[in-house]
Design goal:
The structure holds 2 protein chains of 2 kinds.
Chain A lengths: L1 H20 L7 H11 L7 H7 L10 H27 L18 E15 L2 E9 L7 E12 L4 E11 L3 E11 L5 E11 L4 E9 L6 E9 L13
Antiparallel strand pairs in A: 1-2, 1-8, 2-3, 3-4, 4-5, 5-6, 6-7, 7-8
Chain B lengths: L2 H11 L3 H23 L2 H18 L9 H20 L1 H4 L11 H18 L3 H12 L4 H8 L3 H32 L1
Helix pairs in contact in B: 1-2, 2-3, 2-4, 2-7, 3-4, 4-8, 6-9, 7-9, 8-9
The chains are: A alpha+beta, B mainly alpha.
C-alpha cells in the first residue's frame, strides 16, 4: 500500500515536472530590447538610502580631522534619533498600532460595518477609489484602494466593474479581485475574496458591499476565513 | 557566482547601464521561463518580464549582496507575475486551453496528459503556481523558496501542499469525467 502511494506520488511529481519543463526558456529579444531602451537614462531609485547605508570608507574619514568630524556626525545622528524616539513615545504621535490582532487558526469570523469613499477618479474607463472601512474589527478596519475597470451598458442603465482591491492597516494587507454591478436605481453590489499578507498571511477575507452608489456610505458584510480563497470551480464538472 | 557577473551586477547597481544590459541579457531567459510558467500566457509573460527588468534596474542600488542577485530577481519576477495576473484577471480565473494537434496514439496520450495538467494548473492562484514553479521547475527547496519570496517557511509549505492537493484533485476529477464519458459513449 505504502509503495503504491509512493509510486502515485512519484508519478504525479514526474507529470508535474514534465509539464513545467515544457515551455519557453529564452526571453523574446524584443521584450528585452524594450526594457533596455526604457531603462536607458532612467534614474535608479533609493540613491539616498544607498549612500546612508554604505560603509564609511570615504576619503574624508581617513584623516584624523575627518574621523573627528565623522564621530561628531554620528553623535549628532544618534542624539537626533533619541530625541525623535522620545517625541514619538511621549508626543502627539504616541499610541502606535498596538498589539497584533489575534488570528484564530481555525475560526471563521463574520464582520459587518460600513465603508465610505474618500476619493474617486475615473480616466479611460478605469475607476480609482480610496475607501475608509470600519467594521469594528482591527483586522479589517483600514484604508482600501480599488482600481476598477468599468463597463457601461447605457441602454440598460447598468454598469459593471471588475478590478483589484488592497486593504491596508497597521499589521498587514488584504489583496484580491473584486467585482461589482451598479443597477439603474443607483444600488451597487460588490464582492470579492482577498488574500491576507503580513499578520494575515494564511487567511482570506470575503468582502461584500451593498448600498447606494459610490460617494456615499455603503454597508459591508464580510468574513475572515482561515486558508486561501477558494479556487474557481470548473463548470464542465456539472452533470 | 562568477566574479565577472558579480562585478557587472555591482557596476549596474552604480548606474552602469551597459553592465546592466549585459546582466539582463544573460539572465532574462530564466526570468521569462519563470514568468511564462506562472502566468501560462505569452503576452502576460512578456509584460511581466519587461516590468521585472525595469524594476531590477530601478532597485539594483538597494541590492547589497550581489550573490543574492538570482533569488532577488526571482522574487521580483514572482511579485510582478502576481500583479500582472491580478491586473489581467485571467491569471486567477484561468482561460481556455489551446488545443494541440496530435498525430500518434502515444502523442495523443501525452497531449491529453498535458491538457489535464494545464486545466488543473490554471485553476490555481498565481501565488500557488509560483511555489510549484520554484520547487518543481527551478528545484528550489522549501527554505530556499521561503528566502526567495520572503514569506514564512510554514506559508511556503502550506501553499505547496494546497497547490499539489488542488492539482491532484483536478486531475482525478478530470480522469473520472473522462471515464464517465467513455462509458456513456
Amino acid at each position: 500500500m505504502g509503495a503504491v502511494v509512493m509510486t502515485r506520488d512519484q508519478d504525479f511529481e514526474r507529470r508535474l515536472s514534465d509539464y513545467l519543463t515544457d515551455g519557453p526558456s529564452a526571453a523574446p529579444k524584443e521584450v528585452v530590447d524594450q526594457a533596455v531602451e526604457r531603462t536607458e537614462g532612467r534614474r535608479q531609485r533609493h540613491r539616498a538610502w544607498v549612500w546612508l547605508t554604505m560603509p564609511l570608507d570615504l576619503p574624508l574619514w581617513r584623516s584624523d580631522a575627518g574621523r573627528r568630524l565623522g564621530r561628531l556626525v554620528v553623535i549628532a545622528a544618534v542624539m537626533a534619533s533619541v530625541l525623535l524616539t522620545a517625541l514619538l513615545i511621549s508626543g502627539p504621535f504616541a499610541g502606535g498600532p498596538g498589539p497584533v490582532p489575534e488570528m484564530e487558526s481555525n475560526a471563521v469570523r463574520s464582520v459587518g460595518g460600513s465603508m465610505a469613499t474618500t476619493h474617486e477618479s475615473e480616466a479611460a474607463g478605469v475607476l480609482e477609489r480610496v475607501l475608509l472601512i470600519e467594521v469594528g474589527d482591527p483586522r479589517i478596519d483600514g484604508t482600501a484602494h480599488q482600481s476598477l475597470r468599468v463597463e457601461n451598458a447605457p441602454a440598460a442603465g447598468v454598469q459593471r466593474s471588475t478590478g483589484v482591491m488592497r486593504l491596508d492597516n497597521d499589521w498587514g494587507t488584504w489583496e484580491g479581485v473584486v467585482n461589482g454591478v451598479r443597477f439603474p436605481d443607483g444600488t451597487i453590489v460588490e464582492y470579492g475574496w482577498l488574500t491576507g499578507r503580513g499578520a494575515y498571511d494564511g487567511f482570506s477575507y470575503f468582502h461584500s458591499t451593498h448600498g447606494p452608489s459610490a460617494g456615499t456610505e455603503r454597508a459591508i458584510e464580510g468574513a475572515i476565513w482561515p486558508g486561501e480563497p477558494p479556487s474557481m470551480p470548473d463548470p464542465s464538472l456539472l452533470p | 557566482m562568477q566574479a565577472e557577473l558579480r562585478e557587472l551586477i555591482g557596476r549596474a547597481g552604480h548606474g552602469d547601464h551597459e553592465a546592466f544590459e549585459a546582466v539582463i541579457r544573460a539572465g532574462a531567459g530564466r526570468l521569462y521561463a519563470i514568468a511564462y510558467r506562472i502566468l501560462r500566457d505569452a503576452d502576460m509573460a512578456d509584460d511581466a518580464l519587461q516590468e521585472t527588468l525595469v524594476k531590477i534596474w530601478d532597485d539594483l542600488p538597494t541590492l547589497r549582496d550581489p550573490d543574492s542577485f538570482d533569488a532577488w530577481t526571482y522574487r521580483i519576477t514572482c511579485r510582478t507575475c502576481y500583479r500582472v495576473a491580478k491586473r489581467e484577471r485571467r491569471g486567477s480565473l484561468g482561460s481556455l486551453v489551446e488545443p494541440r494537434s496530435s498525430t500518434t496514439p502515444s502523442f495523443e496520450a501525452e497531449v491529453a496528459d498535458h491538457d489535464e495538467m494545464e486545466r488543473g494548473f490554471r485553476r490555481l492562484s498565481a501565488e500557488h503556481r509560483a511555489v510549484l514553479v520554484l520547487h518543481y521547475y527551478l528545484g528550489l527547496t522549501l527554505s530556499e523558496i521561503s528566502e526567495t519570496l520572503q514569506v514564512a517557511p510554514g506559508t511556503v509549505g502550506s501553499r505547496l501542499h494546497y497547490a499539489t492537493r488542488s492539482l491532484r484533485a483536478a486531475l482525478e476529477s478530470e480522469a473520472r469525467s473522462t471515464e464517465a464519458w467513455e462509458q456513456s459513449s
